[in-house]
Amino acid sequence: MNKFTKLGLFTLLLATVVFSSCKKDYESIQSIDDAAIKAYISKNNLTQMIPDPDKTGFYYQATNPTDGTFFLNPDSVFYDITVKSMQTGATYLQSPVNGNLGTYVGYLNSFFQSSLSTSITYNIPALRTAALSLKPGGSARILLPSYLAFGKNGAGPIPSNENLDFTIKTYPYRKQWLFDDDKIKNFLAAKGLTASATKDPSRIYYIVNTVGTGDVINGIESTVNVKYTGRTLDGASFDSNSDGYSSTLTSLIQAWQIMIPKFKVGTKFRMIIPSDLAYGKSGSGAIPGNAVLDFDIEIVSVTN
């Protein structure tokens, strides 16, 4: 073999080594994530996990009630979520204790926007795909590769290139007000208050502790002075005023506008309010979205 042949062979071998090295250095994120997810499935014996129907790269498992019909894109879905790191087990996102999340099934792919307190809309079709495999009351566990989640940039508490273990638990309700009504009835039963509570046609439940004998409140244009304490259903107080707070009723939440004019000055009553008559799906401050609220109210005075 002459020196030129030897040189050519050496060059070919060198090129092969360099190419192999580059190929290893630039292994795709898809193959890296898929290997990590398969290892996670094996380590945790998640034998029920299956690849998604379109083979885009995520795995999931659906658990459903025996009756009911599957969700469709136009349906409302009310749910809780938990999002954990597959690497460390750290919980990145968790639904609020005293509320629940809700949207249309067809919009589930972008629900993370509000959860992460960012103006960016993240498109995660895996969430909608999993929801379409569920009936109301069903749950899905999703193993989501980083490239189908938040990618190399991450988002909020979620770091770069993070594979996620995601759980979505849906509730067996087609309307939020039905869900709220059951929350209230269960709360009253647990507190031994069912017999003493009255359900107003507005769906607010109330208990009168002291019947007032003072002035009548003419309507929502009146200015009232009230003492109050507001709580979520776990008993945590989010606001109170024992000195007296004055406001026109039109500036207050809808439930106060509905109930306070029904009573005279001096009345002390308790009302448990469905979320749509309080702060709705957006919540306010410490009050999460779709939260049922529990108020003690004393009507001190009125200016009609």
From TrEMBL:
It is an enzyme of class 5 (isomerase). Keywords: Isomerase, Rotamase, Signal. Residues 74-174, 221-303 form the PPIase FKBP-type domain. It comes from the Bacteria. PROSITE patterns: FKBP_PPIASE, PROKAR_LIPOPROTEIN. Its EC number is 5.2.1.8. InterPro entries: PPIase_dom_sf (IPR046357), PPIase_FKBP_dom (IPR001179). This is Peptidyl-prolyl cis-trans isomerase. It comes from Pedobacter vanadiisoli.
